[in-house]
Amino acid sequence: MVDPHTGAPGLHAALVRHTGYLLSRLGWFASRRFSERLQSLDLTPRMWGALNVLAAGSPVSQQQLGRSIGMDPSSMVGTIDELESLGLVERRPNPSDRRAHALYLTQAGRERLATGRIEAKQAQEELLAPLSGPERAQLHELLLRVAQGIDATDPEAVKD
Amino acid sequence: MVDPHTGAPGLHAALVRHTGYLLSRLGWFASRRFSERLQSLDLTPRMWGALNVLAAGSPVSQQQLGRSIGMDPSSMVGTIDELESLGLVERRPNPSDRRAHALYLTQAGRERLATGRIEAKQAQEELLAPLSGPERAQLHELLLRVAQGIDATDPEAVKD
DNA sequence: CTCAGATCGTTTGTAGCACAAACTATTTTG
DNA sequence: CAAAATAGTTTGTGCTACAAACGATCTGAG
Known about the structure:
Strand content of chain A: 5-15%
Order of helices and strands of chain A: HHHHHEEHH
Low-confidence stretches of chain A: 1-6, 155-160
Number of strands of chain A: 2
Radius of gyration of chain A: 18 Å
Oligomer: homodimer
Shape of chain A: globular
Largest sheet of chain A: 2 strands, antiparallel
């Protein structure tokens, strides 16, 4: 009845009418499937998020990183520990604030990220298979607008 | 920096480019916010899903219900226990299969559901505030197509 | 300059949920 | 009838979110 690999879909007609439900259910699938792909890279979704943010720009503190990917500080510790033990991320002292760490992506981290992006591309292709190119763009744009609405509700959300 | 009520958005530019990420993040918010609303009704999202499916039609077994809302059998037990102790759902014997229960929605259950639907309506309005009417319809339709794609990948998913 | 309060990373503890395994009672199948 | 499958349940494990507290450090008011 349910493929143990992909998990139970659970798309009952009575629930699928609600956009919010569809959103949360699909989000669950998307992250679950992607997380399976990441396993081959010894990465968890949290680690993946961290690598992406770190690759994006200047070094950040653990708290900034945590806010960016919606993870609380106490959970950050272990995640960064893992990334550091894999040699993908470096904790360096922050010269201007000795409380904070400055997180850096290593060369190995950059390479792992590049490999992961191939997986991400495939996962996205698989997920959005039912949609045409323009439809995918439109879906993305609509989701983005909804996301911005949430940010607006949520003051000071993405300042860092 | 982050409103403790709504939770950390975490919509970093580096991640927001991926539709899959947007989907899972937005899904997380949607369910979180709705779950806060449900607290005033003494319901959890799981219970809410169960009530909806039960209201939709003929009595189902716990396993059928579980599959419909993506919850495994062992977690179903406690959920139904709660619903039953609240007087919202009834476990009756299934005459044609003495292993299985036939789950029924009580009158109180129907009333609670009706109240919840008002909350759901408001939550959806709040979530989709940035979108116009036609845009909301389009978003829903696109999500539905993606969901159907997942079902297709996932054999025998929603048979029950 | 001082000192009270805030912030950063960290540790610890609690609670909820997903998942797997095992068990009984029953049904189905060969 | 015997063997395998299924429904509900119990139990245990592991992960994650969340809250609270702590030392070290920074900041700002006076």
